[in-house]
Amino acid sequence: MENHEPLLRTVDLTKRFGEVIANDAISLDIKPGEIHCLLGENGAGKSTIAECIYGFYHPDAGEIFFNGEKVKINSPSDAIRLGIGMVHQHFILVRPMSIIENIVVGTEAAKPFLDLTEATQRLEKLCAAYDVSLDLNAKIWQLCVGEQQWVEILKALFSGVKLLILDEPTAVLTPQEADKLFVILQQMKEEGLSILFITH
Fold first, then answer.
1. Using an 8 Å Cβ cutoff, are 86 and 156 in contact?
2. Percent of the residues in the chain that have a pLDDT greater than 70, as a whole number
3. CA–CA separation, 148 vs 16, rounded Å?
């Protein structure tokens, strides 16, 4: 039976920067297995609403509900714990470290004595599921930008997100890479993942 309850709901979300109102009473519903696009020119407030949902910014007014419960998201760590992941337009990766290290550091899998065997197996399954070809031991500096974006997406999927926010994901991709991304996002949607896609 289809779930008609929103996974994410924002009610009258407002964010100001001094005298500038970046988001003015934004209400948004995203249900499980839906792709929503925030479309608008630069400076329209698209990334700001996403950063409020992800806990990077704190709204000045309004409410956020996730999985039917009112939540206060004070930081990206809170968002990740809830099941919200975000791939920023400018990637947050440690260039001298490997793909697997970038993905695992900061997760439950990162125990005091790091055993990457189980994490590697999980990531290999994710790569196979989405037809992503990456050498998990490669360093970030060795990757093209399209591959780096996949590291960010895999990092979110590895942490078990239910809502994936993508900020201008096609800006760094070739047309062929963008086409492949859209095919995979459709697959993720069919598997029940909710996606918020930001683009101008």
1. yes
2. 94
3. 32
